[in-house]
């Protein structure tokens, strides 16, 4: 059986300026330093303006915390005002980049085709995409959440070679549970995450599907993370609001201590 190292990633969204980011990462590093946390991978997805500061801190202090961006341009460079390219993120030694977050899909009209181009841009420049998928409330209420989410997985990974797809991280984030305090029940989250793994097996192979880490995201907190992480197809969490409180995020990272 494949062992998947859990990935706990804090998505700061449009919060924390670069000075606040430094203080926040320092607090995380201090709180996590007294105990070996190799068994869990920790990452922060910071605003673009924070990345250089976070890089300097992580490199300088040799921190185990990984970092990345919340979006990437599908283009490598050129006249795309306001965009940030893969080469720019790679130069900052980002490990991860979130792609297709529901807030990008909703507020920036990102389609599966755009998300797919961004996933490919990430791989082209050595970044690992965290492909975000998940249904809106009306889709869940109509009972189409699995089908909807699997279509986003298939669209996001379209034409991607197995050598790349085997390292993708998929974040299942039901839109109705994001920032609402309404956490998806652990059994409901497991149902969709298992279906995502099944889709990966269908698209590639069971061996590849067993390697891919699938996160749950949506109102994850220290009080519910252990129950979510106990599910066999959930390999981590993509944490929004609760990742802005360093004490709370550390408790989430240490879900096994609960
Ligand atoms: O990327 C993170 C998700 O959007 C979840 O956000 P949340 O933890 O604030 O619900």
From TrEMBL:
EC number: 5.3.1.1
Alphabetical keyword list: Cytoplasm, Gluconeogenesis, Glycolysis, Isomerase
UniProt-listed Pfam families: TIM
Catalytic residues in the record: 101, 173
GO biological processes: gluconeogenesis; glyceraldehyde-3-phosphate biosynthetic process; glycerol catabolic process; glycolytic process
Annotated protein name in UniProt: Triosephosphate isomerase
Cross-referenced HAMAP family: TIM_B
Subunit structure: Homodimer.
Gene: tpiA
Keyword Translocase recorded: no
Subcellular location: Cytoplasm
Enzyme kind, highest EC tier: isomerase
Binding site for substrate: 11-13, 179, 219, 240-241
Reactions accelerated catalytically: D-glyceraldehyde 3-phosphate = dihydroxyacetone phosphate
Entry GO CC: cytosol
NCBIfam families the record matches: tim (TIGR00419)
Keyword Isomerase: yes
Domain of life: Bacteria
Role summary: Involved in the gluconeogenesis. Catalyzes stereospecifically the conversion of dihydroxyacetone phosphate (DHAP) to D-glyceraldehyde-3-phosphate (G3P).
Listed InterPro entries: Aldolase_TIM (IPR013785), TIM_sf (IPR035990), TrioseP_Isoase_bac/euk (IPR022896), Triosephosphate_isomerase (IPR000652), Triosephosphate_isomerase_AS (IPR020861)
SUPFAM superfamilies found in the cross-reference section: Triosephosphate isomerase (TIM)
Family: Belongs to the triosephosphate isomerase family.
Molecular function terms from GO: triose-phosphate isomerase activity
Pathway field: Carbohydrate degradation; glycolysis; D-glyceraldehyde 3-phosphate from glycerone phosphate: step 1/1; Carbohydrate biosynthesis; gluconeogenesis
């Amino acid at each position: 059986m494949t062992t998947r190292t859990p990935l706990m990633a804090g998505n700061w969204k449009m919060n924390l300026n670069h000075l606040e980011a430094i203080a926040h990462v320092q607090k995380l590093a201090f709180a996590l330093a007294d105990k070996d946390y190799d068994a869990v991978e920790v990452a922060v997805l910071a605003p673009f303006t924070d990345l250089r500061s976070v890089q300097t801190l992580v490199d300088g202090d040799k921190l185990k915390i990984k970092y990345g961006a919340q979006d990437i341009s599908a283009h490598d460079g050129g006249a795309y005002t306001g965009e940030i390219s893969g080469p720019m993120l790679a130069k900052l030694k980002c490990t991860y980049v979130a792609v297709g977050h529901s807030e990008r899909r909703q507020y920036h009209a990102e389609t599966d085709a755009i998300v797919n181009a961004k996933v490919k841009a990430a791989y082209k420049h050595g970044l690992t995409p965290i492909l975000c998928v998940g249904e809106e409330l009306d889709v869940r209420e109509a009972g189409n959440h699995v089908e909807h989410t699997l279509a986003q997985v298939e669209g996001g990974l379209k034409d991607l070679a197995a050598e790349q797809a085997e390292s993708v991280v998929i974040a299942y984030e039901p839109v109705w549970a994001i920032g609402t305090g309404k956490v998806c029940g652990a059994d409901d989250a497991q149902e969709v995450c298992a279906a995502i793994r099944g889709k990966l097996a269908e698209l590639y192979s069971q061996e590849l599907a067993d390697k891919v880490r699938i996160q749950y995201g949506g109102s994850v907190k220290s009080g519910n993370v252990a129950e979510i992480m106990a599910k066999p197809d959930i390999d981590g969490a993509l944490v929004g609001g609760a990742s802005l409180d360093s004490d709370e995020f550390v408790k989430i990272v240490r879900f096994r201590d609960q």
